[in-house]
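User: My collaborator sent over this chain with a note saying "see what the structure looks like." That's all I know about it. Can you take a look?
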Amino acid sequence: PPPPPAVTHEAGEGSKAGPGLDASLVSWLQDTAPHFDALMSHLSCSHAARLAYLHSMRARATSAIWWPFTQHSTLQADGIQVIDSRWGDSWQTLAGSSSQGGDKCTSNTATTSTSSGAGSDLVPSSSMVPLHDACSSWWTQAATSDHHAELSRAVAYATGRYLHVMFPENVHQAALEAAEHLLRVVGGSWAKRVFFSDDGSTAVEVALKMAFRAFMQQHQLDLGSPQEGSGLVELQVVGLANAYHGDTLGAMDCVPPSPFNGPAQAPWYRGRGLFFEPPYVAMEKGSWQVVQPTPPWWSGLDAQGLGAPSKWSSLQDVLSPARDGSDLTRAYRCYIEQQLDEHVRKQTSSSGSQRPKGQLAALVVEPLLQGAGGMLMVDPQFQRELVAACRARGMMVIFDEVMTGGFRLGAPTAASLLCLQPDIACFAKLVTGGALPMAATLTTERVFKAFEGDSKMQALLHGHSYTAYPAGCAAIVAALRMLTSPIHNPNFAPVPRNASAPIQAPITPNQAQAGCHQDPLAASTSESQANNCSVGHTNPGRTNADGSSAGSTSLLQTEQPCCHPCLPYQAAATQPSAYCRRAMSSDQQGPVVCGAAPSLVPLWHEEEVVALSHHPAVVRLVAIGTLLALQVRAPQRVLPSSSAPINSYASSAGGALHVAMHMREMHGIFARPLGDVVYIMVPPTTPRATCDRLLTGVRASLDHHLTGALPDRADLRDGYIV
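Assistant: Without extra context I'll predict from the sequence alone. Here is the result:
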């Protein structure tokens, strides 16, 4: 349309413009109305076509896609969530049904005047509605909407700069900075090397190769070719029941039989090792306690009076290594040693010689929390004793931190909560902020040197075409900077330089603007430079891995730390006090000291969590870091019961399913139960106000569950969601 005319003041008493309206402007609006009508019609047609496409996706997807962890024979069309986009922790999803299909968008209707309602019948009777991703898209998401664009920009810059380059004996800025950031944030003081891979399961496979080689070298076992009759001992692992380390064959052999590795899933499966049934802890009716029913071996403890006390007033008490001298700890230690000795005897007797048929070479565990097993929290003292016993026998210790690493449980790693240092640890999911698939296996220098030799055949012969691909590495750098910046992560609490500093409130936007910065990833950590309080210091001669100038104000750039931290160490939230552990690190001469570490402020309102633990529909719950998991009673079992079974992935209880569907349909919260467990998992950067809103939705859905109402969809009455 032509530009609007200059304003005049000639409108008179008889003008069609009416009093106070400019006649020239009215004339221009009338002349250009068809153009604007055409524009509105075009927009309406485009929107209708977009909705029509979205509506077609369900049927097209069911005929083309094979979904993971999905029984297609019971899946109905309305059980498929159509997602148009994501912003922060919410999806934009399709709701309603199409009646027009968008086929009226033609060249004729595109010029019809909207003043007569043209285009209004082109939009299907549906809408786009937000849906909160309360499972963090399978535990991967770290960013809210405040950081979505920055993560995307970092990935885009690396893609444009490199696209992809092969990695053996090459290095690029993104890979180098990713390795350094991983060592600083999740590697603690023990990790010295980073091996990149593509996903968590592969990271575990790499860890097994590392552990077995280091064990064989340490015990001077045959490193030759495994020819028939060579006499090689089968290397085995120590693991836990209800564990999950991935879907690849080696990872599946590291756990006892489960729905994931049964004959219908993995006919080649052969559990290779000794698997303990651990005791679990959770909150029941306001107190933390050992979950009932306890493992079968627990009855022996009760008979000796060693099972008590098994209740604690706080999560801090559960995590505290001060439990080391308790009767329960000594009972754990005795049981573990007995089982290890019995396994060695069985392996020796079955071999027919003095040389055992199999030899335990590595401990492989998910530290503190078993995710796929049902968000089960292992008694941390049991895991400490297990690590100590295995390490004393010369085994390598592998921590699978694929889910727990990266502040998922409120600390950089679950190992830091346990006050333990592994030999090898696996990370994925959160370390890229949920932007791209990427994994890393971190290890000690000792394990690394086990692969040194004169021949390439002694090197670690493992890798894939996209090892350390630049976009994934850039995502790691951006995500770890975001997670460990008190400016950009409102929940991050750095370790104060003065351990006795008074607790202060979290950082505010005004403090951030005033230059109150503390970034633990600053280039130098020496004491002399740490005392240099140049707030907001940047180096204009350096370029960040995300493409921004180091002198710019990029959201995720590294900043110089200030002398007085803006956030205190929240000891009572997630971290136990400093204790010395008798579980020694393989690379250290003295005991491992569990000191202060950065953490997240508590995200879940303590009083609300306690109230939920008393809810008649809740058996027990676990609230730690970014996770809130509740075991829900089945509809026919709403009366209190202290002996509800431990959650199983194959559980047929429908309570969790009903609660999850009510949360989704009535409160806009997308949750996927694990058996009879409903869990909420938020990004570590989530504001506490968001957590409060989610808690309100959970409570309302639990209240509705008590009515016994079932979902309308028949496929959900007996189905399972993972």
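A starting point for your reply to your collaborator: The radius of gyration is 29 Å.
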